[in-house]
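[audit] Reproducing an earlier prediction to check determinism. Same input, same settings, fresh worker. If the tokens differ from the archived copy the diff job will pick it up downstream; this log only records the rerun itself.
[audit] input (122 residues):
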Amino acid sequence: MPSKSRSFPTWGYVLLGVLAFAGFYFVKNLGQRTILKAVLGEPADLIAQAMSSARFSSRITSRTGRISSKNFKVENLSAKKDSLVFRFLLDGERANATIKLWMTRRASGNWEIVKSDTLFSK
């Protein structure tokens, strides 16, 4: 009677591959939005929209080239959470762009970008 080999089954490798892909996809696409939502609450959607539109803005990409990475930082979060200064960095092929947003919560409860500033560097 032939003995059974105790090797890892093929379906196990497929399952590990699917789990690795799902983890990568979550971190790449949903991870940043989830972190923003957890830290900032309501203004996270507005910030995510500003970040994604900045990556494809022709005004920015004409000076930076293709955007290869992005980073973000919350600068001043007031105790009342009614104003916010947010900075995100876009690393491009030719130059980098730093975009600073000043946000405030209006009386209606909606968040609005009051001012933005873009700084380009090599």
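[audit] rerun output stored. Observation attached for the diff report: The radius of gyration is 21 Å.
[audit] end
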